[in-house]
Write a structure and sequence with these properties.
alpha/beta, 19% strand
């Protein structure tokens, strides 16, 4: 542990060495400040963009609004993750995602350990419609911007599948978390049928990706104000690409088993 040393003499002539630990506390305080200042700035920026996105939804409906909404999301998330890297709060290895740019219509299926999962993917892939919880679509911070970007809510099963299929036929890509929420604890939750039905009805494949991290910060059930060990490390790696299934229910079971097997062999762990 870093710190300075203070020397003094005891009565018997021996030298007393005491470590002054306040530099360590100061470093932790700085890390805490930078990390949560970044989160606050993310929230403020999202709120400001929502104020702009709300009228844009009215004057730029359709493809033009979607293009603007997605590019702004990509640029902002890229800046945000770069700031986290610059201040030493996190390290990101997202290079494998670049292979999906220009890869054509795909359903990108990912595990969901924390709140940074979607920003990491969207920071590298601008032509992606993210399937989000309805509470995010309806929220003050995310709602207007999410609607402008053409993101899809996950609580209309038939309607959500229909919107996702239409997005794929327009040439876009879909980001979906098959659990429908963040992973709680060490094991994956049950996978929803939506990704398999979207693939089955559209005819487009499912590309799996794996989000690996050595922290549980922003994970489900984790206290927001608990300072994580810094820097945090995040990596996204490619998995198998599955052809469109003929039996969505059976395929969903197979997909979950594949995710469990791959995540057990992950070299990063919280």
């Amino acid at each position: 542990m870093s710190g300075r040393f203070q020397f003094g003499k005891l009565n018997d002539g021996h030298v007393l060495v005491r470590q002054i630990r306040f530099p360590v506390y100061l470093r932790h305080l700085c890390e805490y400040f930078m990390l949560y200042t970044g989160l606050a700035l993310l929230g403020i920026a999202c709120l400001l963009w929502a104020l702009v996105a709300f009228p844009l939804n009215l004057v730029l409906p359709g493809v033009r609004g979607i293009w603007i909404g997605r590019w702004v999301a990509t640029l902002w998330f890229h800046v945000y993750l770069s700031v986290l890297s610059f201040v030493g709060a996190a390290r990101f290895d997202l290079r494998e995602l670049d292979a999906l740019r220009g890869a054509g219509p795909l359903i990108i299926a990912a595990n969901h350990p924390g709140l940074l999962d979607a920003p990491m993917v969207l920071s590298r892939l601008p032509n992606v419609a993210c399937v989000l919880k309805s509470s995010l679509i309806d929220s003050v911070f995310w709602g207007a911007a999410a609607r402008l970007a053409g993101y899809i809510r996950n609580d209309w099963f038939v309607g959500s599948v229909k919107l996702a299929v239409e997005e794929l036929h327009r040439g876009g890509q879909i980001l979906v978390f098959p659990e429908g929420t963040r992973t709680e604890g060490a094991s994956l939750g049950e996978f929803r049928l939506g990704p398999a039905y979207v693939s089955s009805r559209s005819g487009f494949p499912i590309q799996t990706i794996f989000i690996e991290q050595d922290t549980d910060f922003l994970g489900k059930g984790q206290p927001l104000l608990k300072r994580p060990d810094l820097p945090m490390h995040f990596r996204i790696r490619m998995g198998k690409r599955f052809d469109s299934p003929s039996d969505p229910r059976a395929f969903t079971i197979t997909l979950r088993e594949y995710f469990e097997s791959e995540l057990r062999s992950s070299s990063l762990g919280a």
